[in-house]
Each structure stands twice: as structure tokens, then as C-alpha cells.
Amino acid sequence: MNIKKTSLYATASAAALALTLTACSGSGSGSGGSASGGSWDKNATVNIGSLYEPQNLDNTAGGGQGVTEALNGNVYEGLFKLTDDGKVDKLLATDYKVSTDGLTYTFTLRDGVKFHSGKQLTSDDVKYSLEKVIADDSQSARKSNLEVIKEIATPDARTVKVTLSQRSISFVYNLSYVWIINSQAQNLKTTEDGTGPYRLDKWTRGSALSLNRFTGYWGDAARNQKAVFHYYKDATALNNALLTNAVDVVTSEQSPDSLDQFKNNQNYKVSDGNSTTKLLLAFNDKAKPFTDVRVRQAVSAAIDDKKLLESVWGGYGKLIGSMVPPTDPWYEDLTKVNAHDPARAKKLLAEAGYSKGFDFTLDTPNYDPHPTAATFIKSELAKVGITVTINTITPDEWYTKVYKNHDFTATLQEHVNDRDLVWYGNPDFYWGYDNKQVTQWVRQAEEAGSAAEQTELLKKVNRKTAEDAASDWLYLYPQIVVADSKLSGYPLNGLNSQFYAYDIKKKG
After folding, report:
1. 70, 229 contact by CB (below 8 A)
2. Strand pairing partners for 160?
3. Nearest CA to 367 among 53, 10, 48?
4. Is 36 helix (H, G, I), strand (E, B) or coil?
5. Contact 371, 284 (CB under 8 A)
6. Distance set, CA 425 to CA 334, 415, 433, 464 (Å)
7. How far apart are CA 26 and CA 91, in angstroms?
8. Kind of pairing, strands 249-250 and 387-393?
9. Angle between the 305-313 and 370-382 helix axes, to the nearest 10 degrees?
10. Spatial CB neighbours of 452, under 8 Å, sequence gap ≥ 6
11. Can you tell me the mean pLDDT for 35-57?
12. What is the DSSP string of 270-291?
């Protein structure tokens, strides 16, 4: 899953809607933010404030959410591009054809594309990049989805022919997450060689990562000369940086209590976009007592999600009742399934043989809002006789203990990606949910012949996982972007943590 702070453990969304693909003429097709009139400085430096510094610069080697935010679309590009409004555009691929059996995709590459090193893009680079994602040691967010790749051929320098082992309606969508990298590049954890509108200038760990406009870019030039991502440890420091003009825009506001100082100031603009980030109380469905669906339902019913959301985010965010945000094609409002009802929670616990409650340990990441949410959950569950011990751990500890070793009873975590419902069809995923019917529906959805068929199947998955309380989906994050009023063209939506900087204009 794409996890806040540590998205090296990122989930891929294997079931994407078959989207209409349009030609994309370089970076200028970004979805942009607020509009502003007047002249803008083409040589400006845009200072971007973020809480998410990369772990390293390789998104197949645990680079984390921060490397996606800073480099995706800015430094590296794919054959296709996921826009800020969730559509898929052609990018380094100018055309593609699919065989009648749906198993062979033939891509035509854009001509005249250069890597930042000066090397011309060829089909060998695409082959290398795809193989890098599905390699044994890859930690890519799309590894498991792209393992349907059976063979990659390169008939000529501008043609890539990919044969799949089975139909995958999401294949092109998943390719929008694959960075095309120079096959001869070295030391990708600390350097880069992409085709994007910026090239890496300097990365000062613990401080900032700067990007310079790439003069050899094949498409529309970046609207600013330099984009600098500045990294802060907490939301207060980030807000102070914005107030003191150290940064021009904050990628994702994490302190709603501080918004009034910006909303009531004409020098700033506050935008509330669409988010795909869900906060989950994830049960280990293979560990007692959460092997019993009644226990999971009881815990979900005992927690007042609305009160939690209000306490953390004020009037922002949304209750969803499932893994599916409203921007996903198979969304359905399921907030009434296992809604807050302490009396029902006690009844379910009694039916499951836990009339006197039980104890469990909640493994909790050490960064906000997890500690706050954990304390709230502990208090709510105490009301129905359940005792919670909070075990606070670092992101690295979470990865090893929870994600890799499945050594937990319940945990808190944020899942960033859109269309990631399909992980409930994988019994080996860290939460261990295993429903044969759901697994079948997910497989059928991926092999579907149409978007309508796919959507109908995933709606069934959505409802069944909600009824089974496979997890407790506490709330959907808001996506609040705060920017200096001199800025325009910045992304408004928090789609999978990407933040395209190239369309940002800054008034002189």
C-alpha cells in the first residue's frame, strides 16, 4: 500500500477503470490549481513545503512517499501519465494497440526524447524499466500488478511489445506508475536519469531537494526555473515556513487548527481538493480474536468515526465506510454498514463469546495522526469492555513487524492509493483477509472485457468487505493545499501522493 511517510510498502491498485486516453503534449497538460491574472516570472524559484522527505531516490528500492511526491512526473515520466483528476494520458507512448485476445500490447514511443544525461530514449530503456519493477528485489508499488508480464520484446528502437500471461484491464493504468529510466543509469538511490521537465539539482538530506528546469526537455518547458521541496518535521514548522515566506505552497496541510490564519489572510489561498488517503484500523484477520467476523464488526461499531474525524480534522475529511473513496468508479456510500452502535457492539461480542471483552495490542506508527487516533480508539473500545495496549513503533519497525512478518493483532495505517480495494482479494496481504468469493470477484474484475463489468464486480467486493468488516475504515483524509496568492497552476488533489510542480506559475 502506498503509506504515508513510508510508501515503499505501497499498494498498487490492480483494478483501474478503463479510461479514455488522450494525447499529451508534454508537461503543460497538468491539471493546475488556482487561477491568477497578471504576469508571471518564468525564471522563478517555487519553494514547496512538505512533511515527506524521500528515503532514497529509487521508487523500486523503498524511496517512500516523498520520492513519488518530488520526482514522479517532475523528474521521471512513464509511458502514460495519471493526471491530477485521475485520468490517464499518453506521455512517452504516442500510441498503442491491443491484440484481439487482450494479451499483447504494442507501444510506439515518442520520438526525440532525451534523458537528462543526453542519451536518446529507446525501447531498450522501457524494457529495462519494466523489468526493474518486477525484479525479485523490487519494492515497487506496482510489482505484483505487473507480474502478469510474460515477455517484453523490442522489435525496433521505438517499438515495445509486451505479452501478458492473462488479461489485465488495468495494465495501461498501472503503466502510468512505472518510471522510464535510462538503462545505463547508476546509483539511482542518490542520483537520477529521467526524461522529465526537471533534472535533479541537489538533495540535502534532512533539509531540501531542488530541481532545475531541463533545457533539453521534449515537451513544454516547466513554467518555473526551479522547484525546491523543503522538508519539515511537523505541521507547525511547515505552517511557520509558509507564514514567513520560506515556502510558497504546502503540498498537504496537516494542521487544520491553523487554517484560520491563512483563510482570513488575502495573501494566501486555501483549497480543499479530493483525497484518496484512507486511515485504517487494520485487523490481522488471521489472528484471534479477529478471525471472527463478529468481533471485527463489534470493534467497528464501537468506534465513533465521526467524532474521531471531527477531533482530528475539524470540518474537513469524509466518512466512507469502506476502502473506496468517492473518486473511485465503484464507490458506494457504505457508512451505514457497521455504523457506530455500542449496544450492537456489545451484542456481537457476547455472540462471539467475549461478553467480558478481551485484550489486544494496537501497533501504532509514531507520527500524526496515529497516536491521537490510537488513544481515541482505546477510549472508545474501553466502553464495550475491550482493553487496548498501544505499542508505538517507527515506520521501519512497522514495515518489518506488520507488513513483512504479519506479526501483529491490529494496527493503524494510512493507505494513499486510489483503486486499492483489490488488495482484499489477496489472502497473503498483510491483513490476511481471505474470502474465496472476494478473491474470485477481484480476479474476474481484472480480466473483465469492459469497464462496466469491472465496476459491477468491484462494487460487490466493496460491499462484501464492508459487511465482513475486513478492516475498519476510519475516515478519508482531506486534501488541503495552502499557497501564496502569487501562485497558480499547482495540483489540488492528493492523488497517490504525486505533486506536479512544472505548471506552477509565480507572479514576479
Report:
1. yes
2. 107
3. 53
4. coil
5. no
6. 19, 16, 8, 11
7. 7
8. unpaired
9. 150
10. none
11. 86
12. EEEE-B--EEEEEE-TTSTTTT
C-alpha dihedral sign at 449, 130, 404, 391: negative
Pairing of strands 226-231, 45-50: parallel
Instruction: Provide the 3-class DSSP secondary structure of residue 410.
Output: strand
Rounded-to-integer distance, Cα 47 and Cα 41, Å: 14
State the first-to-last Cα distance of the chain, in angstroms, to the nearest integer: 40
Biggest CA–CA distance in the chain, Å, is 70
Helix (H) or strand (E) holding 131: helix 123-134
User: How many residues would you count in the chain?
Assistant: 508
Describe the chain by its helix, strand, coil percentages, rounded to 5.
25, 25, 50
pLDDT, tens digit, 9 for 90 and up, residues 97-130: 999 999 999 999 999 999 999 999 999 999 999 9
**Amino acid (1-letter code) at residue 488:** S
71 Cβ contact partners less than 8 Å away, ≥ 6 residues apart: 54, 57, 59, 63, 179, 192, 194, 196
The answer for residues whose C-beta is within 8 angstroms of residue 398's C-beta and 6 or more apart is 6, 363, 365, 411, 413
Residue 448 binned pLDDT confidence (cut-offs 50, 70, 90): very high
Q: Are 26 and 197 in contact (CB under 8 A)?
A: yes
In angstroms, rounded to a whole number, what is the distance separating the alpha carbons of residues 337 and 321?
A: 7
Q: What is the pTM of this model?
A: 0.82
Task: Give me the DSSP letters along 297-327.
Answer: HHHHHHS-HHHHHHHHHTT--B--SSS--TT
Contacts for 81 with CB less than 8 Å, ≥ 6 apart: 24, 29, 73, 88, 89, 90, 91, 176
Q: How distant is the alpha carbon of residue 299 from its chain centre?
A: 26
Long-range contacts at 263-266 (CB < 8 A, ≥ 24 apart) = 266/485
For residue 5, the SS3 value is coil
Grid cell listed for 259: 487554517
Taking a C-beta distance cutoff of 8 angstroms, is the pair 204, 71 a contact?
Answer: no
Nearest Cα to Cα of residue 421 among 322, 493, 304, 504: 322
Q: Is the pLDDT of residue 178 over 90?
A: yes
268-281: pLDDT as tens digits? 999 988 888 899 99
What residues form DSSP beta bridges with 237?
A: none
The pLDDT value given to residue 274: 86
Question: Residues 209, 212, 216, 220: is their CA dihedral positive or negative?
Answer: positive
Q: What is the mean pLDDT of residues 503-507?
A: 96
Q: Coil, strand or helix: which one is 496?
A: coil
Q: Give me the residues paired with residue 249 across strands.
A: 48, 483
**What's the pLDDT score for residue 256?**
78
CB 324 within 8 A of CB 462: yes
